[in-house]
Design goal:
Chain A is an all-alpha fold. Chain A has 17 helices and no strands. Chain B is built from eight helices and eight strands. Helix content of chain B is about 40%, strand content about 20%. Classes of the chains: A mainly alpha, B alpha/beta. Chain A: One of its GO terms (cellular component) is plasma membrane.
Chain lengths: ~400, ~280
Amino acid sequence: MIKKTIDITTKLDNFVLKNRMISTTLFAMKQTLPLLAVCVYARLISQLILSPNALFVTLFDWRLRIPAIFQLQEMLSLLEVFVLMILSATFTKRYLSVRKVTQTTLPTLTNFLGTYFLFLGKGQTPTYDTSQYLLVILLSFISCESFYFYQKFVSGDNPQPFAVRFLIWAALILLIDVALHFAIQRSVVRSALNTLLSNNFFTTFIGLVIISVVAPLLWWLGIGLPRELINNPSTINAVIKNLDTILTNTNATLPYPTNLYSVYTAFSLFGGVGSTLAISFILLFSIRKKQQHLGMLSLLPSLFNSNQLLYFGLPIFLRPLMLVPMILTSLLGTLIGYTAIVTHLIKPATLSTPNTTPSTLVSFLGSNDSWSLLIVVIIFALSVVIYRPFIVIETSEVSYEK
Amino acid sequence: MRNKVIIILSLLLMAIIGFFGHDWVTHTNNNQAKIQNSRMAPIIFIPGSSATINRFDNLLSKLNNPKSTHSILKVQVNTDGKLVYSGHIRANDEQPFIVIGFQNNRDGYDNIKKQYRWLNTAMTDLQERYHFRNFQAIGHSNGGLIWTGFLENYYSSDNFNMTTLMTLGTPYNFSEVTLARRTVMLTDYINKSKNLPKGLSVYSIAGTEDYTDDGIVPVQSVIAGKYIFQKHVKAYTQITVSGSDAQHSSLPENSEVVSLIQEYLLTKTDNTGRPTP
């Protein structure tokens, strides 16, 4: 049964990798990896040491006076967008080359700038999640295809790369990006999602199971997740009510013992969405040097719940081979965590923990119950067992690189 | 070997964060529990510019007359952010008086900005010491501006619950006699008024000596507070007091003002000093 699942997934993966758009995307992601690594580590340093509510600043009550901290954070946000701009430009250049288009400078520049307009307005920093990879790739893809057909349609003999007819095309693409900028910036979707996740349905078994499956699926698809599903969901009603109850009376019965924080964050987010900490761990023991390096590079951010390096480096985006174990481990964490809480084997996490607390420690710190650590170890060990066969196949087959 | 080192270092890092994180969580949540369950709701006073922490002594004596039921604590915030405490809060006093003053008590918008930053330092320290969440506030003259600046820039409803603010002769538009000319400070305060707590009741008291001002602050400048508070807080009430004691510096001792504080801010107590239901 397990072997059959792995075989089917591998076949599906190979089929997907033959797709021109996906193989180009994965190529572009690998090309962008060094810049992303700089970005991820810069953000990690900010979250651990530099920002006013950084983890170590909070834990050790450091009173650091970092000069121009807001400018630094602004630059960090710009760097995040710059990663997407490079991703889009690399994708465009590669995709058009595959499509045998020789004049790639203008479309590459257009998509590079278009991504900037998509995420940043004048004098703005992105206040929302920049992990909208699907959107970036789809827009770049549509732009490439339109350019491919447009240049076939309009080009005469030996056209100039910056001829007016091509500039008109570039202006249209940039206009679309600017229009979309205002569409995706609307906070309606975010507040609607927050309201939805605050619904008591997500304190029930079915609700939590749905979240543990849907969250890795959306993330795998490259759709930016609401912050409640990536970090501490401390703004969720059930979490606030639990905290109020426990602060008023330590021995009181909790209104919502199982919720996004006590189950999903505490047991299904080890290393980020899809419990990918296990992947970094497995890669350390890979026979390939490149994979070992990726394991080492991604381990530290993974400990603090950031798995973007694996997303680009492995890669994970749209790969069926990665989706199956991601959903399985996420679901497994939720199932074990939920069972342990409802059977009173462990206390649920209710207390507030500092920002950027590793999710492997959330259950222990949030509940003050050492038995939670045992559950964490069991879930992590099982995650390694689930991921291992898939990673072994992944590290032995890198067909999209051919 | 290399992998072993990496794994051991990772575990060590987790152990350090786990150890110190446990301390932080315990300390923070104990503190939060005390704050949550605290019955203390002090009235916190801030004097105007050039005044010291002793500015309200006469007012506090009147409020504590005939029986001293409210203990008095005074805090001075020095320019380096250091706090100097005098007086004490009696155990079980549910409504102590706290006066916060500043070493740099000079006038001017730049100084007011510094003063509300120092006020935040004092409030954080007071909460850490006395574990209260609910409080009421009184600001005389620029003291009202400092409270408003604090509310708009530092106050968080996660940490505090300010129920009432009473400002006495507060010049929201400095010395401008017409509402048509708005100072930079008033414009800033109006622009940030959405940050004001929604459940706050504000009483703005103006004094009139000669129908136009209280000797120092134009009535129109006090009235300009409506542009900041109206529609952004639960209730905004403008009250004008007149007569011989309505002069700007006499406002805190004005018998009408004392009555207003007793009516709107003080908890009614029985003969034993306990709050009546």
